[in-house]
Amino acid sequence: MAAFDPWSPEFQADPYPAYAELRAAGRVHYFEASNQYLIPHHADVSALLRDRRLGRAYRHRFSDAEFGRTPPPPEQEPFHTLNDHGLLDLEPPAHTRIRHLVSKAFTPRTVERLRPYVEELAEELVGALLAEGGGDLVAGLAEPLPVGVIAEMLGIPDADRPLLRPWSAAIVGMYELNPTEAAAERAVRASVEFSGYLAALIAERRNRPGDDLVSALIAAHDEEDRLTEQEMISTCALLLNAGHEATVHTTSGGWWTLFRHPEQLAALRSDPSMLSTAVDELMRYDTPLQLFERWVLEDIEVAGVRIPRGSEVACLFGSANRDEAVFAAPDRLDLARTDNPHISFGAGIHYCLGAPLARMELVASFGALLRRAPGLRLAAEPRRKPGSVIRGLSELLVKV
After folding, report:
1. Mean of the per-residue pLDDT values for the chain?
2. pTM of the predicted protein model
């Protein structure tokens, strides 16, 4: 447990040796600093994500007092209203109803229709990097591609799109372990601004529907069952936040990984047909979302350890994706790896709805850079974002 220090720069730079120690030491560990039970093994993480005795929320069954938890401070209400009505933090029956309605507007056909836009935007962004002789891969490609795609899906005007990434970055700051007061204030402010913007956008689409996801969400219904105003606002916010964070960090972190494995990069350049397996391997090797939390709604037992109701478990995705029991040579990057049941998109009822779109975006951006910038190389040591839950770079300077 001494090696598991999620706030230390050393751990944030490379958490994987600490995860290996956790796996070797056992299947469940209580971590006092965050008051959580850490689950490091792939089989246990996968099982708990599917176990309905755990949930992303508990207020659908218990009050805070009944669950032994302190309610969040009143000043954080705008963040929790926005966050708690999104699919990621709902449980059945609300989750079942909303996911079914959202799925109607988020069909494989909808995603496939975006392919020309995704590929065109990737080519455009890579072209701009080439014209400059290089630059910051995070700001120049990793961020604007998925944000642009989600904005296109939602029908957000071009002029408003620069607002989206700062709002998202502030909101997801609350997902870190024990977020600071300053991080909470930023998240609340962004939640108020983003909610207000989305409410106005939804009102406009009610009057003038378009060929976009917001209009489709307004129209989606089962008999008399429709999304409420808050559910629509929270769904749109979640589609942006969850719909681009993993893609951003897989793009930037993936290229940083490739630069440190030149033989694998050379193999990918010589055989672009590996792109599909390469994208999954990069997500496994350096997982963008390192842990996912669950509340224990009924007493459970893991490896003989009783975890009582009211506890919180941290499913360590980053550790599960390096589990020796599941992956051959897990610390080796193998872009041709086909047996790759990584857990980066989650599992169970909260499995990522946007996984096919994320893969499409990643294949498009990696493919465009591999094809058009065969000499792409690192220009400076990257700068890593602080935090241990969402793992990514804030800057990756490259030359072409």
Report:
1. 93
2. 0.92
